[in-house]
Write a structure and sequence with these properties.
This protein has about 575 residues and is α/β, with parallel strands linked by helices. Helix content is about 25%, strand content about 20%. The protein contains twelve helices and 23 strands.
Length: about 575
Amino acid sequence: MRRSVSSRVRAASAALLVVAPLIAAVLPTAAHATAPADCRPVPAPAADLLHATAATERLGVDGTGVTVGIISDSFDHAGADAVSSDIAAGWLPGPGNPCGWTTPVTVVGTPAPSGSDEGRAMAQVVHGVAPGAEILFATANPETNAAMATAIDTLRENGADIVVDDLGLSDDLYYARQEAGEAIQRSVDAGVLYVTAAGNYGRVGAAGYPSAGFPIAGWKSEAYRPMPCPADVEAAALATEPPGASVDCMDFDPSEAADATMEIIVAGSPGSPMQLHWAEAAGAVDTTFAVVRRSPALGDAPQATWAPDAQRPVVPSGVGSVDAGPTATDVSIVRRTSPAAGTPAVALLFPAIESFLSIAALEYFTSTATDTVGASMIGHPADPAALPVAAVDATDLTLGFYGSAGPVTTFFGLPEPTTTTGPLVAGIDTVPISFVIGQTTGPGTFSGTSAAAPSVAAVAALMKQAAPDADPARLRAALVDTARPDAFSSPWPADLPAERFSGAGLVDALAAVTAVAPPAPVPTPTPTPAPTAAPSTPAPVADGPPARLAESGTAADAGVIAAGVVLTMLGLGILVFQRRRLLS
């Protein structure tokens, strides 16, 4: 059930109705004048649900004068005809757009060698919310930190005011800022707001298990807790080690008991990728880890995977390999013991969009003082310079369980360790687009944080139009401060902090634009000069009797007449006053 809107939000909405006309009077006038403000040839539910339509109608903002840069796998891999069809229908800007938005999307940098054209879907979302904004596109294909950094720098150098991406990178490290984060910081320092999809690595515990309904997309502990390994786990880990080597195991149980294995239920899929990360700097790794997994129900012998690169703190592995399930897999984290080995923080993640339904249950599924369960953000979305976005379904206003969550602490590459609690705000997903992602046919539906992030970037374009001098910190603060925490329902238990999954809430374009718009000028009253009295001229003295009043036939002096009028009026006033007192 959707929660009721708080009194604070209602009061703020009422205040907006009062101040919006005043703000609209001082905002920059949109340069586009060839189409009516309500021109919408294709559906754009995000514009309505994020109150961007209201911001356009009341404040006159449509993104004119602002450039939004998009980074994804590709934009026009389907060909020029597909893009032209989108323009003609009104999904994209360009020559022939039915609403007169004639500036086409510009592809900058190296063209994408392949891709699903998810960047074109993102551009459609931006255009639906902020049709006046100009759009640039750059690819990060292949999806690595180096390619992402190049794309970010390219968009900044080509004049982007806001940049948004939806990519997870294959070489991300959980505890460190890498090239993508460094490029984001360069952009923010240059005045560019950076918006990013939080990621689609969220998982919810399946019904029928103790972890049902809990976030189970990852498990981490603030320190490695060594204990002896089970004999078969130790044997598997040492099978490829030199003679004399020794190992121990992570104790997953945070209580006084000890448990060297974590049971993970894999439900009917080819398995799910899994990664082990630990908090040591790349190039300065002192501790070597492995993942050992076994499926007792299938009679599988334990299999060990050691870190493939001794100086990168990550072990890529997997959970199970079954065609039908559910199947239990026991996972152990194994450490090679040595004088240099430490006890760093460790994390298990399951970063695979394609398999986001495959992890059904975790044995240890509740967070404690030392362990956190369900945190799945990784890489540049967790960078403190970025604005990560969660997803709210347009069809039922429910927060998507698949959105990656926090908290994430970055230990390396920053002046000091910094924790990102989770997505900072939420946008709208499950929106209509002109094609099915990865195909040339359509129409389709665009879901996930990949769709939500461009909806927020487009709202930021409206804000930037209203306040061209607003820096990223001001835009970011206004988006967060005006977000609506009660505008959607959440799938997560109420006792879990909402900021881990949805940040401050659903973005509100009308409130955010109002927050950054310059205040209406107070008109200075023009003083009215006091009239100058004309010099008096003595009246001539008349001979004969005094003047007679025509109506009454009573002779009276003019001063006496005036005094009588005053007294009469005063008397009437007293009578009225007394009558009011009697009636009151």
